[in-house]
Design brief:
mainly alpha; two-stranded parallel ribbon
Length: 123
């Protein structure tokens, strides 16, 4: 059976603050700049992706959920809004853990905080 999905989008979380004292990478939050990045992404290309598929795969970390919420809100036309239940968030820890494994960690050390496109095109 055809799923009717014509496009898949990968959105990386916005800029984040340093780990809080004694905290872990998991605890990092979006900065005000990161919130603006998520909003601009929604406005610049999020609207082109509508209507959205009702299942959204996302890392369960706060910064990715916040990025997603801001992205979705800013992708809406003026006067529109999402209703409770429009989407099912599918928390996928692998989306977080995948970059923390040895190969992902080595790639991160090499590339740092690069755009997703740079990671996808890395040798």
């Amino acid at each position: 059976k055809e799923a009717g999905i014509s496009r898949v989008a990968f959105v990386r979380h916005g800029r984040t603050a340093a780990k809080p004292g004694g905290g872990s990478d998991w605890d990092r939050q979006l900065t005000s700049d990161g919130r603006k990045q998520a909003e601009e992404a929604g406005k610049s290309f999020g609207r082109e992706l509508t209507p959205f598929y009702p299942k959204i795969f996302v890392s369960p970390s706060a910064r990715t959920r916040d990025t997603l919420d801001i992205f979705l809100e800013s992708s809406m036309e003026e006067g529109s809004r999402f209703e409770e239940g429009d989407f099912t968030y599918v928390d996928n820890p692998v989306l977080y853990d995948g970059v923390m494994r040895p190969l992902g960690s080595a790639l991160f050390r090499k590339m740092g905080y690069a755009a997703l496109e740079d990671y996808l095109n890395a040798p």
